[in-house]
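Thread: pyridoxal-5'-phosphate complex, take 2
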Amino acid sequence: MQAVETIKITHVEKSSLHQIDWNNLPFGKFFTDHMLEADFINGEWTNIQIRPYSSLQLSPATAVFHYGQAIFEGIKAYKTADGKISIFRPEENWKRFNLSATRLEMPEVLEDLFLEGMRQLIQLDQAWVPATPEYSLYIRPFMIATDPVIGVKPSETYKFMVILSPSGPYYVEPLKIYVEEKYTRAAPGGVGFSKNAGNYAGSMLATSIARKAGYDQVLWTDAFEHKYLQEVGVMNVFFLIGNTAITPSLEEGTILAGITRDSAIQVLRDMGYQVEERPIQIDEVISAHKDGTLREIFGTGTAATIAMIQQLSYRDYTIQFDTTQWEVAPLLKKNINNIRDQIVPDTRGWLFPVNY
Ligand SMILES: Cc1ncc(COP(=O)(O)O)c(C=O)c1O
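Output below.
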């Protein structure tokens, strides 16, 4: 492979940074001046370059449009008050990206291309990284199948890209969720653990129905009995019962192994809470609510960070919280923020430096 130190860089002629309203940055709407691009041809990554953000030109027969070999990641970079930019745990995203690639019969991306490519891109567009609390630079690496051929078979060529979006908060208010029993997101043996585009396409109908009914998202359940709880939209989920935080286990391969989930598990343990990764049924959550031991329910994800769930509805049973009284989710969020904002030492090596 071409060494990434030699990534060809073509600079934008005129930056569009001045068009950004830093006080009004909806999630994922604006993109920085440059993007990273590489092509997989003849079994290797080539044409590695950083160039001005622009549209792609692809044949209408391009494989991804028809058979959906498309995977992606979501990562954030943060800027401290003194201008240090770091990416939060991108090595984990690289590993997960390659798990997704393998499951969809796509080529793996080399660590250097993924991490060093991303670092150089962010360094170039560093003026775009917000320093406002709750704001960040959202990083979207993705890979698509590019053979211009119709026919169900793995593509022989692929495109890997990284684009960057300065973004505000994903969710502003605590969430209202209902437990989905009709539609299924994933089943054992399927692709639920991978971050492939089809998983999200398949979730949109149920989510739209939920929105029309006044909810923000659905909480997915298992494919067989619809009683084991899985995950929410773009988040993993935690139930705080007594002093134990319970989160669905990953073994079945039906949920995404969230990196925020993993960070939350480690930080919750530091905070003195027990954490259990295991199957959890809706009945257990309802019993805990009835006997007064259910304290908090929250989601974890890169986009949403730690999102409080103020309402969970299951059939005609509704659990409602006054989230202003919560202690654990807000403190967990603060503790994770303090690591990424470098207010406390990064003892676990979670921060990947961009410009220092
Ligand atoms: C389906 C799904 N579950 C969970 C998550 C949370 O994962 P992470 O914490 O790595 O962002 C995401 C977001 O990436 C997701 O899309």
